[in-house]
Amino acid sequence: MRKYVIMGVQGSGKGTHSAMLAEDLDLVHIGVGDILRWNVQNHTKLGAQIRRTMAAGSLVSDDVIEGVVSERLSQHDWNYGFIIDGFPRSERQAEFFLESYDLDGVIHLYLPDSEVRRRVLARRLCASCGMDYNLIDNSPHADGKCDACGGELIQREDDTEEALAVRLRTYHEETNPILELFERKEYVITVDARPEMELVQAEIVAKLGLSTVLPPSSSSGVTRVEGTGRA
Ligand code: ADP
Hints:
231 residues; five-stranded parallel beta sheet; three-stranded antiparallel beta sheet; 8 helices; 10 strands; 19% strand; globular; binds adenosine-5'-diphosphate
């Protein structure tokens, strides 16, 4: 059982790398932003409550977030563990989390602010399945259509210059101090998020002390990741 948190500024690839690690280690990927967006898109009561806050790039209240995270984790569908992305983002959320869960590691994806704007403004999302694209180096095969399901690619409501400026400022003011808190507990591995995706992923795997092992009889060419211990 492994429990990881992944942190990093907007556009650093938290969603992408969480999904890759989740697949390799059979972890459940919990994207708090994705859960919130699902609620907005599906016009739930919660969605109505948080829509404007999210579109402006501000943080949703700690009470709401703690409710969402507790509810998700209480489903206990994470037999082999989980990787949580987008949480915690404030000191209170960090305390709440550490009271209930022990962590195996915090993955910090480092990306300079100068690169954030370029990446985020080029980001597109499939309106049907949620798959992420980037028009710089991960464009869909057909313009504006999702490769996986053919759904329409849209820009996130908060991927605008104004909302991004708020999100980035909030990250540095509220979320960075948590990283320092986790660093003091020696949970954190920091990985440069600028190289291409596979290299970043390989560095995460190496720094977490996980090794990639190919079964001797395998002819599929698929590389599995096997854990060798705690981060
Ligand atoms: P990003 O990291 O790119 O800003 P996310 O998808 O993780 O995007 O989050 C989108 C928005 O959802 C945030 O700007 C914020 O409004 C809200 N949100 C997500 N996670 C949290 C959280 N832990 N605490 C408060 N608000 C959150």
